[in-house]
Amino acid sequence: MPVLPDRIDERSEAYQANRASLEVQLAAHQEQLAKVNMGGGEKYVARHRQRGKMLIRERIEALLDPDSPFLELSPLAAYGSTFPVGAGNVGGIGVVEGVECIISGSDPTMRGGASNPYTLKKGLRVAEIARENRLPVIGLTESGGADLPTQSEIFIPGGASFRNITNASAAGIPQISIVFGNSTAGGAYVPGMSDYVVMIKERSKVFLGGPPLVKMATGEDSDDESLGGAEMHARVSGLADYFALDEMDAIRLGRQVVKRLNQRKRGPGPRGLGRPPKYDPDQLLGIPSADPKVPFDPRDVIARVVDDSDFDEFKPLYGTSLVTGFAELHGYPIGILANHHGVLFSEESEKAAQFIQLANQIDTPLVFLQNTTGYMVGKEFEQRGIIKDGSKMINAVSNSHVPHLTINMAASYGAGNYGMCGRAFGPRFLFAWPNAKSAVMGPAQLAGVMSIVARESAASMGKQFDEEADASLRLLVEEQIERESLAMFMSGKVYDDGIIDPRDTRTVLGMCLSVIDNQPIEGTRGYGVFRM
User: Fold this and answer.
1) Which helix (H) or strand (E) holds 369?
2) pLDDT tens profile 141-150
3) What is the mean pLDDT of residues 281-291?
4) Alpha-carbon span 189 to 207, nearest angstrom
5) Any idea of the CA torsion for 46, 47, 48, 54, to the nearest 10 degrees?
6) What is the tens place of the pLDDT at every residue in 127-136?
7) Phi and psi angles of residue 276, each rounded to the nearest 5 degrees, phi first
8) Is the C-alpha dihedral spanning 282, 286, 287, 288 positive or negative?
9) Are 414 and 394 in contact (CB under 8 A)?
């Protein structure tokens, strides 16, 4: 077997420096996750509990099969904005009655579970994942509705949320709503459009307009229960399909619904159980370079992620800045493209395009391990055809129909982000390590380009160039680009599906491959025009 060698020396200064740097970044990420897990803070959590209600993560834990994992998606959404980190919503993938499901719900302890622009962005991404992978959706409903001061940003685009529910239902993707509290105004259409609805006695409140609005609109006196309570909807309107006595009873009924869905996987499945890597995944913390300018060999990462550290490398002597090859992960066959020295030349681009085509011929999912500064620039490389060669790679990625999974291990700059299947190129899932960075180019390069343009502009107009002002501006630009390229900033924008501990890479990819297996995998059999 082509087993990758173990080349890691834990005693080396480089390894120890790399590990120390990544541990600092992991700690910063964990600090933010801890804040998210605290919900709206002690005051609002205590008030929620005094009402006899479970917290959103407690509801999810009770819903999941015992000891099964929950892959939370975009937990740092809204980081760096004026809205609560996490966007007041929890969404992810978990196993219920042996079925992989999307589970999503508002956190009522965070501004009453009101939806803001990041809640919407996160929700639309979760719905996209459910649609692409045919995952049943379980909505844990309890929300204060729209964050009214930002209604102009969420009212119009928010309509897509309702469209997604009905389209998914039409496609045979089950939609289940468990109503734990308020689901009013537009939110009332969530259970209204779902396939299955569970409501809780004296807890669920579903109506288009509450008693005050009804009084203003019609002059009619009403109360919550007669207007939109669970018992009314179960006995009179018919909106509730199941009537629960309390929250745990509602969760039991929700699990019962999933059990009867007759859900089954339609993909090829794994080839075997999948043996663990030969080398310790804990060493992944010491592999990415503390200095982003220093490359590292992705084979050392692959050796700690794939089954039995067994990797069939494709074209190992050609286009050596890109490592390509086939492996298995938890028994699932995969093709891997991983950056080595960062820069993509013509040879790497052609190698990638061919490898992607081959993976499509044999219906094999692709895993992209990003650490790229982009495509090579310069007169020599332009004359050799870097534009058309890079375009071949982007063409191949764009028109590939096998599922793509992307991990940003360190850097994802420029068009290299596109060629290595960044967010805009529709990977089924995209996760980042805490040290990852993404931008149009590096901070120093971007500031330098702006400086050169400004200098040339001043010269063309015959003006004296202000060196002092230029130096100050370059520092400001570098600081801004550095801040905006960091993993937590990008994750806050929902440009990835979350930041993961490098040591969890194998587990996360394995869960994603299992989810992908819900439907057949069919590669592209024809491509657009490749410029030769």
Assistant:
1) strand 366-372
2) 887 677 767 8
3) 96
4) 9
5) 40
6) 999 999 999 9
7) -65, 160
8) positive
9) no
